[in-house]
Amino acid sequence: MTERQKGYLRQALVLAQENVRTGNGGPFGALIVQDDKVIAAATNRVIVDNDPTAHAEMVAIREACRVLGHFQIEGCDLYSSCEPCPMCLGAIYWARPRSYYFACTRESAASAGFDDAYIYEELHLKPEARRIPGHCVYMEMASAPFVEWAQSLQKIRY
Amino acid sequence: MTERQKGYLRQALVLAQENVRTGNGGPFGALIVQDDKVIAAATNRVIVDNDPTAHAEMVAIREACRVLGHFQIEGCDLYSSCEPCPMCLGAIYWARPRSYYFACTRESAASAGFDDAYIYEELHLKPEARRIPGHCVYMEMASAPFVEWAQSLQKIRY
Question: Which residues on A lie below 8 Å from B155 (Cβ)?
């Protein structure tokens, strides 16, 4: 890892630390970098936005997509103060950056009282066995949306 | 499952099917129900919003939180046309509804060309072994944000 890259990670950590003082949300920060240029910088905004999806990585990805005018951030790298939780990791896969870097782990987050590691464990269970149970229900029309999608000529894949 | 609940799931499927015609995004719909009342209904908006995080469940959770003025939707149920992807499942854990119901599975989504099942598989790998690799980097100041969080008297847990 280059000094420049370490600088991005340091910036994410500084954002994370500052975010505790603002009260906007949890102690997390993230940056998205394209061609050695920061195109998005964000902190966790769960509390101030009343939005459980407003993790630093999510806010940064959404901002980078706004800047790029596209729903993917190919070729970009994400720098996050902490290991992305399953939600943020899923978002990374949908956004398709080149790679991501983080300083703290899910275990450190757990020690600080956050659910990241617990959610990773829950993912391994079958939906109905989870603490928030998921139920797959047979519906006669279940395939209708996918059939419509298969037949659509105007669809944009993502 | 009651007829009323099946009706919610049917509504989610109708939203999903309609969304293909609007071109707003993928063939997915979701509802959030509190005390037998739909408080949020949404479709996938990835294309129209240029936002890879705008899955139907995410949009519905964010809308429900806006309606409730809180970052959690305790006691609510989520009805989704398809099994939530890891991103949406993570969001469910942060939003803490009571349970969720879905009609199609990750396998059906895969057949329709979506990455849900593939992302679930990637989650089982170590970060550095994933197709979008994640790198944990040692940083001297890594613990600073969590130390600040531990010491904060004004923090709101989520």
Answer: 20, 23
A9 vs B contacts (CB less than 8 Å): 137, 139
Residues with Cβ < 8 Å from B44, sequence gap 6 or more?
B16, B19, B24, B25, B26, B27, B28, B29, B54, B55, B56, B59
DSSP conformational letter for A127: G
Torsion sign over Cα B85, B90, B95, B99:
positive
Q: Flag whether the pTM goes above 0.95.
A: yes
Is residue A28 a contact partner of residue A16, using CB atoms and an 8 Å limit? yes
HEC profile of B72-83: CCCCCEEEEEEC
Nearest to A97 by CA among A157, A155, A52, A31: A31
Over residues B77-101, the pLDDT tens digits come to: 999 999 999 999 999 999 999 999 9
The structure tokens 């719909």 sit at B29
| Dihedral (CA of B94, B104, A134, A119) sign | negative
